[in-house]
Amino acid sequence: MHLTWLDNNSWLIEIGSQKILLDPWLVGDLTFNNADWFFKGSRQQDPPIPENIDLILLSQGIEDHTHPPTLKQLDHNIKVVASPTAVKVVEKLGYNQITALTQGETFTLNQQVEITAFPGTSMGPTVLENAYLLKELESGLTIYYEPHGNHSPQIKQLAPVDIVITPIIDFGLPLIGSIIKGGNTALEVAKCLQPQIILPTALARDVLYEGFLTKFLRATGSVTEFRVLLEKNNVATQVFDPQPGIRFEMPLEKRELAKL
């Protein structure tokens, strides 16, 4: 199993000989509703677009997970699995093979990878976005992904999971509190799911953020602090700190415990 972090929430997951592009932002700027005065993410240089993608997996319908300029450029014949809100975006863009997953539903990719949706981030009183469990069917190895740190109690049934991709740093706003939950929330999910490895997401290395919102957005924590937090709580999970664009193999041990 190989993973490549493509910055922010974007990942290339190579699992079961399948290439899955997760929440990709790969071209152009990142804005919300084209309001770059409010928030804008930009790079000096766009990363290369991965080749031979088998699936695009989208967890949420907002632009930092379902990025329209990136999706316009990708091959519209690639299969897409997405939350119902993200489905609306790719339908408008003309993708040909779209599967909507609601919580509890499962999609199997080419008889090699099973993808199950779990409750993720709430985007208002009527919208609940997706977290995902990816399972390599041959080996049984699993990856759990939730990009805002909103973990449903339902995930307790998944333990143990091999890899967790989730924030480990808190991002918050005055009066509102955390909008992305890391720190103690990530610690609790590590205790719950007993992963071999945690990979931080929702970070930015080669991205510049600017705009009105960034004046108030506050980050708390670091990779080093989270490692210390795990050690203090006797959690054996390793924390990897990937660099954007670097493909790496996951040093996983096969575990004999039953998995979903």
* Total domain count: 1
Share in helix: 10-25%
Order of helices and strands: EEEEEHEHEEEEEEEEHEEEHEE
From the spread of the alpha carbons, the general shape counts as globular
How many beta-strand elements? 19
Q: By CATH's scheme, which homologous superfamily applies?
A: Ribonuclease Z/Hydroxyacylglutathione hydrolase-like
Notes on the structure:
The structure is a single chain. This protein has 260 residues and is an alpha/beta fold. The protein has a single domain (2-249), classed as Metallo-beta-lactamase, Chain A. The protein is 14% helix and 32% strand. It contains 4 helices and 19 strands. The protein has helices at 68-73, 84-93, 183-193, 223-232; strands spanning 2-5, 11-15, 18-22, 40-42, 55-58, 79-82, 98-100, 106-109, 113-122, 128-136, 142-145, 163-166, 170-173, 177-180, 197-200, 208-210, 218-220, 238-239, 247-249. Strands 7-6-5-3-2-1-19 form a 7-stranded mixed beta sheet, with helices on one face. Strands 8-9-10-11-12-15-18 form a 7-stranded mixed beta sheet. A 3-stranded antiparallel beta sheet has the order 14-13-17, with no helix packed on it. Strand 9 (113-122) and strand 10 (128-136) form a beta hairpin. The longest helix is centred in the C-terminal third of the chain and has 11 residues, at 183-193. The two termini are 19 Å apart.
